[in-house]
Hints:
The structure is a homodimer. The first copy, chain A, has helices at 11-23, 39-46, 62-70, 87-96, 108-119, 127-140, 153-163, 168-175, 179-193, 198-207, and strands at 2-7, 27-33, 50-53, 78-82, 100-103, 124-125. By secondary structure, chain A is α/β, with parallel strands linked by helices. Chain A folds into two domains: 2-140, Rossmann fold (3-Layer(aba) Sandwich), CATH 3.40.50.2300; 148-207, Arc Repressor Mutant, subunit A, CATH 1.10.10. In chain A, strands 2-1-3-4-5-6 form a six-stranded parallel β-sheet, with helices on both faces. At the A-B interface, helix 4, strand 6, helix 6 and helix 10 of A face helix 4, strand 6, helix 6 and helix 10 of B. The first copy, chain A, binds a DNA duplex through helix 7 and helix 9. Chains A, B: This is Response regulator transcription factor. Chains A, B: Keywords: DNA-binding, Phosphoprotein, Transcription, Transcription regulation. Chains A, B: It holds the Pfam family Response_reg.
Amino acid sequence: xxxxxxxxxxxxxxxxxxxxxxxxxxxxxxxxxxxxxxxxxxxxxxxxxxxxxxxxxxxxxxxxxxxxxxxxxxxxxxxxxxxxxxxxxxxxxxxxxxxxxxxxxxxxxxxxxxxxxxxxxxxxxxxxxxxxxxxxxxxxxxxxxxxxxxxxxxxxxxxxxxxxxxxxxxxxxxxxxxxxxxxxxxxxxxxxxxxxxxxxxxxxxxxxxxxxxx
Amino acid sequence: xxxxxxxxxxxxxxxxxxxxxxxxxxxxxxxxxxxxxxxxxxxxxxxxxxxxxxxxxxxxxxxxxxxxxxxxxxxxxxxxxxxxxxxxxxxxxxxxxxxxxxxxxxxxxxxxxxxxxxxxxxxxxxxxxxxxxxxxxxxxxxxxxxxxxxxxxxxxxxxxxxxxxxxxxxxxxxxxxxxxxxxxxxxxxxxxxxxxxxxxxxxxxxxxxxxxxx
DNA sequence: TTCCACCTCCTACCTGAGGAGGAGGCCGCG
DNA sequence: CGCGGCCTCCTCCTCAGGTAGGAGGTGGAA
Lengths: 214, 214
């Protein structure tokens, strides 16, 4: 039996979900909240296996409620169910610790599947948003540091500092050598990598993961 | 009618998939490959809407085949179907450009759903692996878009081009304005964002996801 | 030893980038 | 209507950045 806590400020939505879950075996709605502020207390009292959470709510929105809930001890997984397919919401919800993200125009069976997945410790994404998460994943954990191997180790050091936006003078004092020497290294880097100026070098450094954003 | 190309070195698996797809309306298996090396040619000949791809194959494995396929013009989406839930495979397949990743112990209906999703331009992940992708997403893409909103839209355009390593002159011709004007915009950007030079601006652009690596 | 790659530092020179300070035109808002 | 923000373009000036061509020192490999 999977215990579910429903969080949505609209009674209509909650009753719809209640109905859907009741029609299937194996689910029990153990509580409902109309406001994100109530979620923590309700979860502590009812110990649900899954929390189904709307995002747009008055007072405390779903993202903040999710964040607070996930900060408690042994929190239940949160399945976000929202009307709006918005990057801000998606990112915010997942970063707040949600394990599932479904759009409200999903068929009822998808919601059922989602709740089951989360109860099993898995995660669940709406197909409509999976692509975007995938893109982030792809660009996120890059394979190795690609082949900038034509560079000597010193040149590599210099390129890394260029990639951080440092001037030749700063690189010089950072490495404890003269600015002239830095210029020499920089020139060699440009020739070897076919770059035109340090702007191109910075872009190269990011593209080849010699430095990474923020 | 969704045209599907099956790629698996085991005839048994292909026939199983063929059967599953034939039982449902709206699917047509337009080709089969037993080797990753054949995929490119088959896709070019049959123009499938979705490619269902095994990973473990002789000669050319599924990841390499996916990579090659995605490098062609207007490639079909690839749904990876594999026996092994392995991080290396997951990461490799997604990075190679796969839009879906399902495990072979998924129920038939999940495969059907996956193919439909991919044909619709969406993506699809097995619940068992979604969690890991989500974790990467969380730790990876901090803010999808931070507030560089103090910039005017034109300044934002200019910053994006700076971030791609362009010179003032190149930005000018790209935007169809004079280099002098570009310099003016650039100066305003520096003041507003507290940057010292264009090197810092490039780093800023990457850090704030105004441009992204590779 | 000789050779070579690398690191270091040098001079001299040229150009793009950035700062300072405006100016004119367009448009939306009070 | 006038004000202010934005976009556009201008000049004059300075300097960091980049090019060109070298020279001396080290250490490892042939």
